[in-house]
Amino acid sequence: MAVTKGNLYGNTARFYDLEERKDCGELSFYLERASKLSGDILEIACGTGRITLPLAQAGFSVWGIDLSEYMLHLLKEKLHTLSNEIQKNVHLQQASMTNFVMNKSYNLILIPGISYQALLKKEDQIECLKTVYHHLKADGEFIFNVFRPFKQLDETWIQPEKIQWEKIDPQTGSTIQKSHIAKAIDVEHQIIYPEYIFRITHENGTKEELREQLSLKYYYYEQITDMIQAAGFTIAEQYGNYDGSSIEDGAEMIFVCKK
Ligand SMILES: C[S@@+](CC[C@H](N)C(=O)[O-])C[C@H]1O[C@@H](n2cnc3c(N)ncnc32)[C@H](O)[C@@H]1O
Known about the structure:
The chain folds into two domains: 6-148 and 219-258, Vaccinia Virus protein VP39 (Rossmann fold, 3-Layer(aba) Sandwich), CATH 3.40.50.150; 155-216, N-terminal domain of TfIIb (Single Sheet). Helices cover 22% and strands 34% of the residues. The longest helix is centred in the middle third of the chain and has 14 residues, at 122-135. It is built from six helices and twelve strands. The strands form two sheets. Strands 3-2-1-4-5-12-11 form a seven-stranded mixed beta sheet, with helices on both faces. Strands 6, 7, 8, 9 and 10 form a five-stranded antiparallel beta sheet that branches. The structure holds S-adenosylmethionine. Keywords: Methyltransferase, Transferase. Pfam families: Methyltransf_25. InterPro entries: Methyltransf_25 (IPR041698), SAM-dependent_MTases_sf (IPR029063).
């Protein structure tokens, strides 16, 4: 399996939680789905626990897997600050979403945060869906999202560096400036290469620059729905955003899949 270090946030995991994500109802969407189904949850590519921890805090038992030791380390650090009761709700494992093996099946399986798009090779994408299918209970739900290309993407996607935000890191007191470059696109294989640049000014005035090159497979609607169905799933619901808007309207494609 081809995994780029960038997609595992090897250089910049510690800045992941500094990102301010506007509340688009994502968390309440997952909490609501979890309440409806009850039972155990598997969250694939759980990262630093952005979704995992609120689910555990709401009382759900969550098994989180991620391939990145850097992201899992941060999640474990946060988990250790929480109560024993919440800690007991979380079970973490370093594993790839293509070929993980858990000794149980789940009522709800999630791949949030467009993490499925980190899989660049067709065989890995298919393997992942098949592995999820295998771990899903007969009446369970599998929910994942990908971003919706706003048009047929081409080289015009490429854009120069743009500063996204600047803030003080509350943990270190350093000033962090984040930029984004839409660096390259492979139109034939439908892969975009965004790059993040973090420029850090430490409290003592020294400067540091860290870069993360991501590679994300993008899908058009028919391509992703064909793959979901080829893996044996039925698409029970689909949305363009977490407020339940139509799949044609949103910035994302969110699929609720069943066996
Ligand atoms: C954009 S982050 C999303 C993290 C979290 N789900 C969230 O929404 O905040 C993508 C995550 O996918 C993980 N990842 C990338 N490739 C993976 C793979 N092959 N198997 C498991 N996790 C992977 C990365 O380590 C990272 O934590």
